[in-house]
Amino acid sequence: MTSTDDAVIGIEQALRTSPPHALLDTLHARLRSDFGATGTELLLADYKLSVLQPVTRLPETAAPLAIRTTTAGRAFTSQRVLLEPDRDRDGVVAHLPVAVRGDRLGVLVTRLPEAPDADVLPALAELATALGHELVVAERDTDLYLRARRRERLSLAAEMQWQLLPGRGCARAEYSLGGQLEPAYTINGDNFDWSATSDRLTVTVSNGMGEGIQAALLTNLAISALRNARRAGLDLQGQAALADQAIYAQHGGACHVSTLLLEFELATGDVSVIDAGSPRMLRMRDGEVTLVPFERQLPLGMFDGTDYEVQRLRVEPGDRLVVVSDGVHAARSPHGSDYGSTNLDRIIRGSHHLPAPEAARAIIAELLDYHEGTDLLDDAVVVCLDWTGAPSP
């Protein structure tokens, strides 16, 4: 074992025993002593995925860095380690992506007195990943990192929705996926959820009717009911039925949740689908974007005892699936023109080279540009899934 390996092991142990609020201080102290680092900064992606927010001693804040136009932003979007000369002193600056199982959190910026040896850069990248895992755990015990991500105050409904999410991305050998909500700081009823086992991936995209806390509470009920059914071992029909009953029992048909439920068999690419409302799914295969037609059924909770039928399709390696709520496919500009399928197809094709989480962000960014800087008139959710297929035995 090399001295670099020993250093990595020691730093990972130090992070595990660090107080949750002191992770960055602990990491900087060890990077300075073990690698000669002259500075360490943690940048976390804000809820809008437009800037990287420096983690400082709150309530003080430092200037954010734009994701689109900075080296740190390029490291975040590409998920690659990037080096650049240190403009303030001799040496280099390493931009290290911080992610957990495909969920992109931010970038660790480390200043080094000289270009790192061949074995040092992978070690630093490994430590950035270890930091990501510790951040996820630390958020159970401190608000520091959640507060640092906020460029502005979240509405109460948005607070509820973001806490409900499983993350903003995940990846396995068979697939990679990512999602984004907008307006990020005032989202109401749109949401997404996913969960995987050894042989299946379940994805849901939901749109609770109404606005504000009412919509957030309604979606929370739907997601919680779907999770409860899934964790009890119910199939897709059972999950839809239980959520339908829970919402109807609470609201008597006055409120409903439009939901698209997808269950992928990881070994075969077979997909079970229940389309209970407005979310739409588009597929890009061999460069062509097409709407995947489903028989639309009643939204969850609209009537008592709705029977839901499962539909089937198969995905092939190389397919990209994009699920959008009506806040995307039915969006209108400030001048009243429809966003429409033409614009959506164009940005899906134009973002084909991007990883799934970054493609979801790009589609949302295009939608915001279409609105010319004005607030969206409706919630928008985008989930993008790249299907790789089961690895060869």
TrEMBL record:
SUPFAM superfamilies: PP2C-like (SSF81606)
Stored InterPro entries: Bact_Sigma-Reg (IPR052016), PPM-type-like_dom_sf (IPR036457), PPM-type_phosphatase-like_dom (IPR001932)
UniProt keyword Transit peptide present: no
Superkingdom field: Bacteria
Keyword Amino-acid biosynthesis: no
Organism, as annotated: Saccharothrix longispora
Record-annotated PPM-type phosphatase domain positions: 176-387
Keyword tags: Hydrolase
Protein name as it appears in the record: Serine phosphatase RsbU (Regulator of sigma subunit)
SMART domains (UniProt xref): PP2C_SIG
Pfam families referenced in this protein's UniProt entry, alphabetically: SpoIIE
